[in-house]
Design goal:
- The model has no long low-confidence stretch (mean pLDDT 95).
- Strand 1, helix 2 and strand 2 form a beta-alpha-beta unit.
- It is built from four helices and six strands; from the N terminus they run H-E-H-E-E-H-E-E-E-H.
- The protein is of the alpha/beta class.
- It has a six-stranded mixed β-sheet, with helices on both faces.
Length: 198
């Protein structure tokens, strides 16, 4: 519908090495950052890919991995959109501001809500955002807020959903929830490399 390609890779043993999470990829030292780079190269060799509009998203361990790609592959991925995932690397200091949108359930018992907030705040600090946030969406059980004044317009947005646990949010599965797929795409489509540089 929007003219983009989505690639759904399978992690090693159904896991991604996102730092301290998750097994068995972490235990076996799988280089999933390089895998992601190789995957993009393979897709780009077969299809007409806009190098300024390559993004990463994922849920749970995939969300963790999205954070890691923002931390360690910001030269390739223009922006990231983790769902129910947090930063799991000891050092996350990419050479440029990285636009980030996250969703998290307030009653997530697998990846605590508070740790998601901490990761969002870490990105806001890295992107030199002000401490001021603005509510950009509020409907039903969902509220989305974005930090103001971020460097290079690298927005950091946070969407929380009351009553939601550890799931990918959709408007169908949770009345009053946002649809993460649509919400993420609306954000990512506004943050190509063109306006940020590399």
């Amino acid at each position: 519908e929007q003219g983009f390609i989505v690639v759904h890779p399978d992690g090693y043993g159904a896991s991604w090495n996102a730092g301290w999470c998750c097994s068995p990829a972490t235990e076996d030292g799988i280089d999933d950052v390089q895998f992601a780079r190789d995957l993009v190269a393979a897709v780009s060799a077969q299809y007409c890919i806009d190098p300024d509009r390559i993004f990463a998203t994922g849920f749970s361990n995939g969300g963790f991995m999205s954070h890691r790609l923002g931390c360690e592959a910001s030269d390739l991925f223009a922006a990231i959109a983790p769902a129910s995932g947090v930063i799991a690397t000891d050092a996350c200091d990419p050479p440029r501001p990285v636009p980030v949108i996250q969703t998290h359930g307030k009653v997530d018992l697998i990846v605590p809500y508070s740790t998601g907030i901490e990761s969002n705040q870490q990105w806001a600090a890295h992107n030199a955002c002000s401490s001021t946030t603005k509510v950009v969406y509020r409907k039903g059980l969902a509220t989305c807020s974005v930090y103001q004044g971020c460097a290079d317009n690298a927005e950091v947005e946070w969407c929380e959903i009351r009553g939601m646990g550890h799931v990918w949010p959709t408007s169908e599965t949770g009345p009053g929830w946002i649809d993460a797929t649509d919400t993420f795409w609306e954000f990512l489509s506004r943050h190509p490399f063109g306006q940020l540089g590399r």
